[in-house]
Amino acid sequence: MFLKRTLPLLVVFLLGLAMIIQFFIPHPVSQTFYDSMAEWVRISGAFALVLGLASFFYVHTRKIARKNKDSFYSGVAIFCLLGMAGVGIFGRGGTNGWLFSNLYRSINVSLDSTMFSLLSFYIASAAFKSFKARNAMAFALLVTAIIVMLGRVSFGSFLDGVVEWILVYPNTAAQRGITIGIGLGSIATSLKIILGIERAYLGGGD
Amino acid sequence: MEKLDRRWLFLLIGLSVIIPSITNLRFPVTTSPPTLNLWNFVDSLKYTQKPIIIVTDYSPSTSPELQPMANALFRHALEADIPVILYGGLYPDGYGLAQITERTVLEEMNYHLANGDSIIYGKDYVFLPFAPGGLAVIVGMGEDLIGTFRIDVHGDSLKFLPMMDNIRRLEDIGLIVDIAGSAVSRWWMIYAGTRYGTPIGVGTTAVSAAEYYTFLQTRQFIGMLGGMKGAAEYEELNAQRLNIEVRKQAGIAMASQNFVHILIIVMVILGNISFFVLKKNRERRL
User: Fold this and answer.
1) Which residue from B9, B49, B50, B141 lies 20 to 30 Å from A11 (Cα-Cα)?
2) Which residue of A lies nearest to B63 if distances are taken between CA atoms?
3) Which pTM value belongs to this model?
């Protein structure tokens, strides 16, 4: 219990508090502490990659072992990961080599951007089916959206001034409110984590 | 209209994308203030010779929209003899995309400058490798840029590259342009911009552009490229002011975007007309 719960909570509490205090003390000792903490985060980040890989193999090898209906895709995922890593580590030129770059460019970039571009079909369909001026607010939103969309195309250059005004004034006012809300929310959540009230990061539904 | 099979819409969208892109249609591009501000700021770096860091902080999914921005910025900086640090960003995906930018632009420029100056690695630009740690990498760069990476993508020590002679930390950098489809640009703004005082520019997808206007107003971002239009505007400025005559990726894609936007607007209007006609008919029956 001490190692699984009390120790992590203590580490988070002490380091969280130390980082808050450090921010307000412009002293060389405080700066050295800050630098070493930043370095530790980078080192932990490298270990997080190892952890991610371990988790990846754990999930997919289990699916294959259990003969899950999607186990073929797990096999493809493992093959792709090992293949790319193998080409990057042992291939000629490493990650700067012709093969690695072209595998990335021709497979990963093409597949990923194709998947994302499918969104435009669904957005168009959703806009047609559900973007209706059911009341005054919806009508205002509809008109604004049409003006901004027109402003993003060459035919709509006559609307540039109106579009810029919408983005700079009403949009900025709303965005700033949202940003302040997010900021306050982040502070509240950070305090809850430091004080041990929010413990979801410990896992186990604790 | 209400019962229209959505596959017809899909077909229309597909045709609106394909036809303009294969018929070589071109439309005039007007420049918006955020793009112009960024272009002017980048160009002013040629007088101070402070380097620009171009960060490709995006994944392949958003690359059709963001890759032209990285290319246009890299091209502008190299043409104007501004030292460039190309960096794949805080996630591993961006490294490959920065590589694409490097190869695309260098191929174009070596062709363009066949009888003139050529681009020399280490003197004109440097390419930084991926370093894990996310936010901590920005903080590390703020304190000790060379110590954070130590080597470049070729495995050579950054200390021995001539371009890095006067660069120790972020305060020695003239501008960071973070190109991202996520909220990562805010990290650069908060840490590199606010904490270390480095000017920040941003390139982002059209969807995310609206949320950054608040930071343009406060000058926390000195300029912004918003979506495909922002990239097309930057390409156009490069062409007009620096006589860079290369294939305008975003300019070509803008033709499709023009038609798709118009199609969506027409469909929304038709959808609303149909909605009101049906509503009126229902009211009459009652």
Assistant:
1) B141
2) A113
3) 0.88
